[in-house]
Amino acid sequence: MKYIITENKLDKVVLTWLNNNFGNLTPIVKRNKTYYVNDNELPLFYYHQDNKNGFVNVNSKILWSSLETIFNMEYEQIQDVIKHWLKKTYNIDGLIPQRANVYGVY
Length: 106
Prior knowledge:
Strand content: 15-25%
Number of strands: 5
Largest sheet: 5 strands, mixed
Structural class: alpha+beta
Strand order of the largest sheet: 1-2-3-4-5
Order of helices and strands: HEEEEHHE
């Protein structure tokens, strides 16, 4: 018997994985940006406080590339699932996720 993972099931698996690995980030506001950092204070994503640019910048080396590698997701799929995850987990809505170089020094 062959099992097929539908996109909806994949999204649920990815959301669970995101919450298990990045569901307890701490927000830190510095220089008009809100960073969400892990226990080692490594930022996983950030956005500008004024939200004028409309994007949330997602760490390309850790978070974004993990979704590409582990789940074989494409750019638009990653955007959609991260957008949903940010809304559900961190109450961040209305921003478009984009892959970005997010460094440990903020």
